[in-house]
Amino acid sequence: MLRVPLSTTRVRPSFALATAAALAALLVAGPAGAQWRNLPNNVPVGPDGKPNMSAPTPRTASGKPDLTGIYTPNYRYFQNLAADLGIENVPMTSGAQKIHAARATGLLGYDEPDAHCLPQGVPKVNQAPVPFKIVQTDTLVVLVYEAFNLWRQVHLDGREFAEDLNPSWMGFSKGRWEGDTLVVETRGLNGKQWLDHNGLPASDKLVVIERFRRPTIGELEIEYTINDPTYYTRPWTTTVKARYTTGTELFEFICNENEKSRAHMGPNIK
User: Fold this and answer.
1) pTM reported for the whole predicted model
2) Residue range(s) defining the domain that contains residue 132
3) What does the pLDDT average to over 132-159?
4) Is residue 138 one of the residues assigned to a domain?
5) Is the CB of residue 169 less than 8 Å from the CB of residue 192?
6) CA atoms of 143 and 136, how far apart (whole Å)
7) Angstrom distance (rounded) from CA 186 to CA 171
8) Which sign, positive or negative, has the C-alpha torsion 97, 169, 158, 131?
9) Which of 60, 83, 120, 173 would you call most buried, defined as having the most Cβ atoms within 10 angstroms of its Cβ?
10) Rg from Cα positions in the chain
């Protein structure tokens, strides 16, 4: 699948509407072989001759579930992180409710950071509607995002957070295994990101716990616990899903190169 800038070709309608400006710069169908030949396919074939996405989860030499691979997020969670939970069940403070309502309706001049080619932040970057890749070793997991060419490091070597972290868009992440679940804690976020496209707010007090599970070879589940006392009266949890994707690779995505979409986006585009 070839993804090219909006300034030079058409985009899929759902993606163009989904991202207030910059993230609309990506998708158009094209031959995967235009970039690579003989892409490996690590999915076993079922009796019908088709890839068996329900096959057992692969494991590393150390016996842990192998999360390595390219995944395509489910768009519904980019739009609304609490799509399955129900927005009415998100324990927002009154201040958060006002911010969320204004952002979701496009009022008060709110502009999500993506519209200015700024990073989506954690956890929103996991839901950006383009693929991401997980690279796994015993001591380090790296997440590489096609969206804005972003990346994260999850350290599994026992290190601890410093007391005074430098605020950043992607934060600092450490992880550990609990059985077959990779538990990732992210701190040091700068409070400028939105949690989703509809505008759930976040502050610099945000701590995100992600629990990565791969029930089958074709599925990835990420359970989030959002802890931000500035905007939420208690921690809250929701789960998103992504699918293992074959026959493609990540592509370069330079958001602010010849970007022409924002001028054509109205204030109420969602």
Assistant:
1) 0.84
2) 60-257
3) 97
4) yes
5) yes
6) 9
7) 6
8) positive
9) 120
10) 19
CATH number of the domain at 132, please: 2.40.128.20
| Distance separating alpha carbons of residues 136 and 22, to the nearest angstrom | 29
When divided into structural domains, the chain yields a total of: 1
d(CA 130, CA 6): 14
Contact status, residue 171 vs residue 185, Cβ threshold 8 Å: no
Domain contains 31: no
User: What is the predicted pLDDT for the residue at 111?
Assistant: 82
User: Which pLDDT value is given to residue 109?
Assistant: 64
CA atoms of 236 and 209, how far apart (whole Å): 10
Non-local (6+) Cβ contacts of 66 within 8 A are 57, 58, 59, 60, 136, 214
Q: Rounded to 5 degrees, what angle do the CA atoms 85, 197, 182 make?
A: 55
130-84-142 Cα angle (round to 5): 40
Per-residue pLDDT band at 13 (split at 50, 70, 90): very low
